[in-house]
Amino acid sequence: MTAPRPLVAGNWKMNGLKGQLTEFAAIIEAVNSGGAGHAETAICPPFTLVAAAADLALGGPVAIGAQDCHANVSGAHTGDVSAQMLADAGAKYIIVGHSERRTDHGESNATVRAKAKAVLEQGLTAIVCVGETKSERVDGTASAVVGGQLDGSLDAAFDPDKVVVAYEPVWAIGTGLTPTAADVEEIHAFIRGKLEKLFGVKGQSVRILYGGSVKPSNAAELMGVKDVNGALVGGASLKCADFMGIAGVYR
Ligand code: PGA
Description:
alpha/beta; 10 helices; globular; binds 2-phosphoglycolic acid
């Protein structure tokens, strides 16, 4: 099976007013000029900018994503946004189970699985995040933790073509710290094995992104690791030059 097409996705988190769309427009222009090579690209702005970003991106190669959704399609859930609404606004990807949501909002694996199911039901692709804390890494339980998150957040009934896994060690997010290439290779191989068990041969083509302090200076090394099929980029996705410095490794 040929390696899956890499995906470099930007997660803007709770950052970005309307003015930030000029940075997004610059990313579109850079990707249109071939700056991301054979990689797919996506930007996941806050909910407030999803529709405007989708209008800007229309027809182009930069997909729009969102950072979360509710598990239900509609109803009495004040303050929540459904996958159907996000599809309607132009999103193609939805991140679910980011560690900041698991921590800030107490999201369980069962919640993440329900959200991923809701994403797939709209024909969108779910970016399902997993990752261990520093103490779990130090204790040697990183694989067990990530394995448990995958078991609880994915489902054999999911369409593997619509699932992306993002391995994001919690201690590497926003800290400037990254695991060694050897550690990334080991855990991505473990995740690949889990995906093959769950989805059979189709598990070989599920993209496994690395996330956590990816920047232009470390992107080539991290993206060069076996079974790393792209990146989920936080802070560095807010600036066109940084985002393209990462996506540019696929030129
Ligand atoms: P970071 O965030 O690149 O700022 O470390 C990554 C993420 O949380 O998706």
